[in-house]
Design a protein that fits this description.
The chain is an alpha/beta fold. The protein has nine helices and ten strands. The protein has two domains: about 130 residues, Ribosomal protein L1/L10, rRNA-binding domain (Ribulose 1,5 Bisphosphate Carboxylase/Oxygenase), CATH 3.30.190; about 90 residues, Ribosomal protein L1/L10, domain II (Rossmann fold, 3-Layer(aba) Sandwich). The chain has a four-stranded antiparallel beta sheet, covered by helices on one side. The two termini are about 15 Å apart.
Length: about 240
Amino acid sequence: MLVLVDSTLDGWRRACGPPWGVVEVQVVEERLVEAVKEALRLGKPRRFKQSLDLIVVLKDVDLKSPEGRIREIVYLPHKPTKEPKICVVAEGDMALKAREMGLEVLGREDLAKLRGNRKLAKKIAKRCDWVLVRADLMGMAGGTLGPALGPRGKAPTPVPPAANIEDVVERFKRAVWLRTRNQPQVMVKVGDEDMRPEEIAENIKTILQVLQDKYGAQKIARVYLKKTMGIPVQVHV
């Protein structure tokens, strides 16, 4: 459960526990839903489906230290309606099942062809949002696809050889990268414009909880929400 700090006396009382804690959580949820509705309203319609992006500005965080950086895969409770492009690097049954699912699959021979072919590796890195790699092929995939994926903020993701690839793919349809780069802030997709505001609000709560667990609520300076081509809306939490 996400607990957000309010410096007022009433806020302190609400954060202390029942019955105040229940009221506080309800207020936070209402604020998030209203912020989502406002961001949707301010973003003009486009000819493409726009996403909802959450921007969290941090304070008193040293990005030069490991404690100050975050690089973590977060699984949202509600998957976006625009599914990510998932590619699989595998052999055998896992590769066969992935092809049956309609996914792009690369095997050992395909990876071998990528050696020295940076142009082709970049094309694959551009069109694949997630590259799931059977663990025994990680070394080969890292050497061929890694240099192309890295600059795009992506990375080969290992999958145990005995894993059910269907379950893994379904989980990664809800996955987002949560990471800091050169600035003390994170920007992450939390939904699409045709999702219910309540679903997007729950996704936002999940992200804020991860950041609070990492840094503490006191280091979350400001929170904004915006559509792809919309105006940022400050989320007062």
